[in-house]
Amino acid sequence: GLIDGTDTVPADPYYLNLANEYSYNVKTARKLMAKAGYAKGFNLQLVLPPYFYAKLAAPLIVSELGAIGIKVSVSTIDFPLWISQVFEGGNFQATIIDQAEGRDVSNYGTTGYYWHYAKTPEVASELTAANAAPTKAQWIAGYQKVLKQITSDAVNDWLYIAPFITVIDKNIVGIPTTAYTESYNLSYVGIGGSIPASAQRLGYLS
Asked: I want to staple 1 with a disulfide (CB 3.0 to 4.6 A). Which of 26, 156, 160, 205 is the partner?
């Protein structure tokens, strides 16, 4: 995987790698904990969906947070319950999820989204302004401003971009050659033949 640090991937025109925004420093973290009134730490419930990436990452989270006094309790629930309890209900303290949605930086401007981001209205305005920008450069700058904002506010912690590996028969067409999402247009998929030039420009295999 690729260490990332914020909600963007290299396929995004506005990609920024902000993984070094918060350097690893236990001493500084303990000082910040004390400043926030948690010198002795606190308990945290980490609820996981039943997937390998979450189960693999959880021990690292437990260890890293434990080093500064945060005592993490881990539980795993079925995905339908994760959807209703965490995603739809917002009833959780911490979770780990594969956030595989294309261009999902817009979620930070979506009222009621399960992150409960306090600056959602502000980000919504920034995204609206960026989308109305007269040039691509200004649009990119607007989105990168949002990326820097959500990273500064530590809305969530982006760990890494999982490698995208697909094995297909040589006769299959219409599969994306590069992707950072779990869904794509199946109408292009076929055995042999060709796909529209417009689909080829989007990265679908011809």
From this structure: 160
